[in-house]
Write a structure and sequence with these properties.
CATH architecture: Sandwich
Pfam family, one: 2OG-FeII_Oxy
CATH topology: Jelly Rolls
Largest sheet: 4 strands, antiparallel
InterPro entries: Collagen_mod_GT25, IPNS-like_FE2OG_OXY, Oxoglu/Fe-dep_dioxygenase_dom, Procol_lys_dOase
Protein name: Fe2OG dioxygenase domain-containing protein
Distance between the termini: 16 Å
Length: 88
């Protein structure tokens, strides 16, 4: 397997608190938590609109994987306090 593109996303209430609904361009997406919910930040998470399913941030270092294209339209939920970092 080969990773084609990886990047770090920073969510802050005063900069980019959330991410609008979108499809990823990948076949699969892996999202890795780089810091701690309720300690480093509050709010956040990922919501899959078609399934009305919300994934709260996992523990620091944990990840979740989902299909990227077509079927999993999703959005980044607002961070209300602190700074959230994820690697995608």
């Amino acid at each position: 397997a080969q990773a084609v593109m990886n990047f770090v996303v920073r969510y802050r209430p005063d900069e980019q608190p959330s991410l609008r609904p979108h499809h990823d361009s990948s076949t699969f997406t892996i999202n890795i938590a780089l810091n701690r919910k309720n300690i480093d930040y509050e709010g956040g998470g990922c919501r899959f609109l078609r399934y009305d399913c919300k994934v709260e941030s996992p523990r620091k270092g944990w990840s979740f994987m989902h299909p990227g294209r077509l079927t999993h339209y999703h959005e980044g939920l607002p961070v209300t306090q602190g700074t959230r970092y994820i690697m995608v």
